[in-house]
Amino acid sequence: MSSLLENIDAESIILAPGESVVFASPSVETFNVIKDSRLQNESLLQLVRAVRRSAKAQEATMELPRGPLGDGTHDLLVRVIPIGDDGLICILIFDDSEMHRLDSIRRDFVANISHELKTPIGALSILSEAVLGAADDPEAIANFANKMQVEAKRLSDLVQEIINLSRLQDADPLKNAQDVNLTDVVKEAIDQSRLSAEKRHIEIVFSDQVSALIKGDARQIEMAISNLIENAINYSPENTRVGVAVKHNEGLVEVSVTDQGIGIPEKDLERIFERFYRVDPARSRATGGTGLGLSIVKHVATNHGGDVLVWSVEGAGSTFTIRFPDSTHARVAGEK
Ligand code: ADP
Prior knowledge:
Structural class: alpha+beta
Number of domains: 3
Mean pLDDT: 90
Number of helices: 9
Strand order of the largest sheet: 2-1-7-6-5
Bound molecules: adenosine-5'-diphosphate
């Protein structure tokens, strides 16, 4: 019986009459429902009693606290089944927490997108009314029209980033992966940001130009590096420097982007990779930010079997480092 239960994708408990536990799979412990070899959780006990009375299997969903603190719960589906005539009962516990967590991320994303889209659309609608009301004032009309252009650009940037992000979620860059020359990709990304850097008198310095190959999708990697460089420019004062470097480090290739900018408060560091999370929403909007840039960077890195790290001190600057598995040497070996 226990080897059967070990092969089912659920946690299991077998109870003898009197609700003493004769078997429990190892992870049942995480739910804290057994004490001194007896079932101790009231909701589970109620379900077991109902099954004993009816002699029929029953199912229920249950939320059990994750621990003594906070409001985190295990979201469980519990099936209680009578076995044989000896009063044995089998409890199967399916943990749906991960599914619920993904569901709630999806719901949040839809709610956030709706909010983000409504802001520029609302602004456009108000501005167009203002244009209608200012029929005799060409100067005011020009002013409103300029503002409309800004909002239309914001809307189009946002839609583009949402498309980028959803493409990334569908595509697997490691299937049909190309050899990507990281130095070339970094140079392209720097070129894309030249204009915005010059406008702010920011110098982009590309040091440590080692040759480095990784497996993946060049377009995605360029988008990620470009997002980091754009952020470095946007969140730095004028007349500062942005440094970009490529390095080999213990089987990894690292691309780092360092700025002398405003930095990020420590409490925000772990949240900045979330979609639409911004430390200062007003500053992000003023620089044309969508709040999606870093979540795209993180996606690209993890899809390539890598990750992204951040180091930052408020007022001093930040360094973002994307780490990829290094395939430089594999390629050299293959060529021999
Ligand atoms: P945004 O479009 O707002 O720049 P991102 O996802 O790229 O969105 O970044 C999220 C937030 O992280 C930004 O709003 C900003 O507050 C912070 N941030 C990102 N990069 C930097 C940086 N180089 N220096 C300071 N803050 C940064």
